[in-house]
Structure formats: C-alpha cells, structure tokens
Amino acid sequence: MVRKKNLLSFQKNQSLYLMDDVFLRIVNIFFFVFHSALIIFNLFGWLFARIRKINLITLLLTFGSWVLLGIWKGWGYCFLTDWHYEVLKRLGQSNLPSSYIAFLVERITGWLPSVGLTNTMTLALAILALVCSLWVNFISKKKSNQY
Fold first, then answer.
1. Helix (H, G, I), strand (E, B) or coil at 18
2. Which Pfam families match (predicted)?
3. Among 15, 30, 84, 94, which is least packed, fewest CB within 10 Å?
C-alpha cells in the first residue's frame, strides 16, 4: 500500500512538472510574439493615422522603462525582457544576451551582434521612431491646420 501511495505521489508531481513546463512554453511563445510585435509597432506604428496616439504612448512607455526604471535596474531596462528571460531561465536556457534585440537577432539569424552595435542601433531606431511619432502627432497636424 505504501508503494502505491509513493507511486501515485510521484506521478502527481511529474504531472505538475509537465503542466508547469507546458505553461512556461506557452508563456515563452506569448512573450516572443507580444514583445516582437511591440517592437515592430514601436518602430512603424506612427505610419498609420488611426493608431498614431497609441504608438506615441507605447514609445513613451518604452523610453520610460529604459530611463526611469533604468535608474534602479540599469540603463535600458525593459520589464518585458526581464520577465521573458525569467521564463527562459526556468526552461533551462542560460547565457542570454543582455539585450532582447540581440536575443531576437540571434534567434532569427543565428548571429549574435556585439553589445555596442545592438545598443547603438536600438537607441538610434527608437529615437528615430519617437521623432517620427512626435512629428506626425503634433508638428504635421499644426502645419495642416494652418492651410
């Protein structure tokens, strides 16, 4: 009787582990899709008139995370990256790059860009997207109202 109880206990723990593993894999896919979509939206959302305000908000939230949360967590801190990396670590991955962009580039192409290149390109493109978003949300509206 004791053996059956131990066997059942083992099976129960194993099924909980499998459920946890399945859940982590689903969360990993969610973060990969959501975070990638957010990056693309931040870069190009300003192009579409109907979603320009939302794009500006997400860009400001992104810069807010990088700068304001960065005061405590380090420059460029992104809570989505932090959460996703925690899931990846629980799935057994290690030696993850410090940048989510570098992670994406490596995942998609197999090439891991240098930290300097990644940070420079990420910041340059994010600033360009913010300038474009500010332009279409405020400056171009003023010019069109003048005519």
1. helix
2. DUF2784 (PF10861)
3. 94
Is residue 90 in some structural domain? yes
Intra-chain end-to-end CA distance of the chain, in Å: 88
How many other C-beta atoms lie within 10 A of the C-beta of residue 62? 18
Do the domain assignments include residue 146? no
Give yes or no for a contact between 11 and 19, defined as CB atoms under 8 angstroms apart.
no
**How far is residue 29's CA from residue 38's CA, in Å, rounded to a whole number?**
14
Token digits of residue 77:
């801190």
Asked if residue 136 is part of any domain, the answer here is: yes
pLDDT tens digits, 14-57: 655 666 999 999 999 999 999 999 999 999 999 999 999 999 99
Question: Residue 46 has what DSSP assignment?
Answer: G
Helices of type H across the chain: 2-44, 52-64, 70-73, 79-90, 100-109, 115-134, 140-146
For residue 145, tell me if it sits in a domain.
no
- Closest residue by Cα to residue 38 from 84, 98, 2: 84
Residue 110 φ/ψ region, left for φ over 0, alpha for ψ in the -120 to 50 degree band, beta for the rest: left
Name the residue range of residue 72's domain: 2-140
Q: For 119-134, how does the pLDDT look when each residue is reduced to its tens digit (9 = 90+)?
A: 999 999 999 999 999 9
